[in-house]
């Protein structure tokens, strides 16, 4: 292990909250006693947001009154998607009864149930590109590490096929159309195209991983990162289900992991972490450069000083957020979250 990483681990173990300390010991060092584990899990579940999520769980295991994020009856974490993602990022154990019951609800509650908040309509993820309740559900299952308990293999394959489709066509224009009643481009039915949720599924599962698949994924992202076709850059498509339905973060050409924000060049640590988890860094120089920049940004005290997109990192929501420190009221707490993501990136880039 690099000396800078050793200092990073010391910094986090001395300054971070229970979730980061737990994940460093369990995930990075692979060295934690049962007593330490039990104590840290107890601390994690005693934090205010964990208590809030626990208290909003319904009898059938569903978290709160929402599914895909908050609404007027469900707060930012009092919904099935954000609640399960929060527990997953916090390092809550798979055998925790609250998480276990929430995952059971994903098995027992039908997609037509009002819990899914689509008024009983079911959107088939195989018919509608980058869409569907089941895609969100499977991303939650993958993030929580339950893909060995609940079968999501068809959606893992769909995720791979969706990225592969980028390489099979010239652009999204080839697989979408326009109709008079809609100002947006619309995906053709039964087409495939990658979105944030396909990416999430692949980043948090292992069964699909092979050199061939990682190379394919790298080529797909390389094409999505193109900026030499201004007529295509930023062009996307949505679904038509009798009315326009936006995708789950469908990708467009011009996708970037580093960009300018408020006049500063920043990196999206979440995107880099997911790319590294997928093994893409082995074949894509743009990701290698960011891994190198992150490594070089760690100071003598082990703290990552890279300019990161903090808005993308803060909180945990449907389309962003990996914050697992209780709050960012202190500079140290924010640095712990940023530094922990840097450590994960460096750790997974070496596997």
Tell me what you see in this structure.
This protein starts with a helix and ends with a helix. By secondary structure, the chain is mainly α. It is built from 14 helices and six strands. The mean pLDDT is 96. A two-stranded antiparallel sheet has the order 1-2. A two-stranded antiparallel sheet has the order 3-4. A two-stranded antiparallel sheet has the order 5-6.
Topology:
Layout: H1 3-15, H2 18-28, H3 34-46, H4 48-55, H5 80-90, H6 97-108, H7 133-143, H8 153-168, E1 176-177, E2 186-187, H9 196-203, H10 211-224, E3 239-240, E4 244-245, E5 258-261, E6 264-267, H11 269-277, H12 285-296, H13 310-313, H14 331-349
Antiparallel strand pairs: 1-2, 3-4, 5-6
Secondary-structure element sequence? HHHHHHHHEEHHEEEEHHHH
Q: Major sheet, described briefly?
A: 2 strands, antiparallel
Shape: globular
Q: What's the overall average pLDDT, rounded?
A: 96
């Amino acid at each position: 292990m690099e000396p800078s990483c050793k200092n990073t681990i010391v910094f986090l173990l001395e300054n971070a909250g229970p979730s980061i300390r737990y994940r460093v010991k369990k995930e990075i060092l692979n060295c934690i006693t049962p007593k330490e584990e039990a104590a840290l899990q107890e601390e994690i579940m005693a934090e205010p947001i964990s208590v809030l999520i626990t208290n909003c769980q319904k009898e059938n295991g569903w978290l709160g009154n929402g599914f895909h994020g908050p609404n007027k009856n469900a707060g930012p974490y009092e919904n099935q998607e954000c609640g399960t993602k929060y527990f997953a990022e916090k390092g809550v154990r798979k055998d925790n009864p609250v998480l276990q019951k929430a995952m059971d609800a994903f098995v027992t509650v039908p997609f037509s149930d009002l819990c899914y908040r689509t008024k009983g309509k079911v959107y088939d993820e195989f018919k509608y590109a980058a869409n569907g309740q089941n895609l969100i559900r499977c991303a939650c299952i993958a993030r929580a590490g339950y893909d060995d308990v609940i079968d999501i293999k068809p959606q893992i394959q769909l995720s791979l096929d969706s990225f592969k489709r980028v390489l099979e066509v010239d652009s999204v224009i080839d697989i979408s159309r326009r109709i008079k009643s809609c100002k947006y481009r619309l995906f053709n039915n039964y087409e495939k195209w990658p979105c944030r949720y396909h990416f999430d599924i692949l980043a948090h599962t292992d069964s699909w991983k092979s050199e061939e698949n990682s190379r394919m994924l790298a080529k797909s992202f390389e094409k999505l990162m193109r900026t030499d076709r201004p007529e295509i850059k930023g062009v996307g498509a949505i679904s038509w289900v009798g009315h326009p339905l936006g995708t789950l973060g469908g990708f467009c050409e011009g996708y970037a992991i580093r960009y300018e924000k408020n006049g500063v060049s920043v990196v999206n640590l979440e995107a880099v972490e997911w790319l590294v988890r997928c093994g893409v860094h082995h074949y894509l120089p743009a990701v290698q450069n960011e891994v190198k920049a992150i490594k070089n940004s760690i100071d003598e005290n082990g703290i990552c000083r890279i300019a990161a997109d903090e808005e993308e990192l803060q909180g945990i929501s449907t389309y962003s957020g990996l914050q697992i420190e209780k709050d960012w009221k202190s500079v140290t707490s924010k640095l712990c979250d940023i530094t922990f993501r840097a450590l994960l990136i460096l750790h997974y880039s070496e596997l």
